[in-house]
Amino acid sequence: MSDLAVIQAKGLDLTFQTNDGAVQALKGVDLDINRGDFVSFIGPSGCGKTTFLRCVAALETPTGGSLTVNGMSPEEARQARAYGYVFQAAGLYPWRTIAGNIRLPLEIMGFSKAEQNERVEKVLELVDLAGFGGKFPWQLSGGMQQRASIARALSFDADILLMDEPFGALDEIVRDHLNEELLKLWERTGKTIGFVTHSIPEAVYLSTRIVVMSPRPGRITDVIESPLPKERPLDIRDTPEFLEVAHRVREGLRAGHAYD
User: Homologous superfamily of 1-82+158-238+251-260 in CATH?
Assistant: First the structure.
């Protein structure tokens, strides 16, 4: 294990029991995610990308192998508030303002009013929503709502950010903008990010490493170290280096289907 590994899976299995019998969602997953990594998980629907993230977040319990987060079990890491989680839908409460939504985990954790206000202000600025704290979710666009959701996950300053297809429902122009913003956010905060996506360009543009997964039972078919520089303008997607990585991801996805 690397000294820097904050998430480590060894031989990770997960089998769900259903009315139609057992369904193996993950099989023999070995992966280290190091501190400060931006790791994207890509693969077809049902390949275990989200399931792996949910195991890290202690929302699912593996049935075999081992998984540690900051050297602890996922359950202990959850209690230690080791990570923030951003879901596919923004999941904001419509009766709370944006600031009120971001404040919610801080209220639950017992932060003082003054500390809550300070943290809310800080994360609103981080996600470029300063001045929108008094608005309600319905007054914001889908992209702004998702940024508020990211701000909520950042509010208690966990080292790890788990993101389950946060931009999947947004149009391409908004998605491109949020990809740029997320890279800036990652650079400013130094968080370790686990990111689920179905988009090859998104995975290649954002990541330091790309984990390619096969259809059920979810296995890792390739882990690609990105050769791209940390500074990534959007037009880097037209470069030969970018296209080469995208091609390798595509080949990995095809190879995964060969298991069917």
Answer: P-loop containing nucleotide triphosphate hydrolases (3.40.50.300)
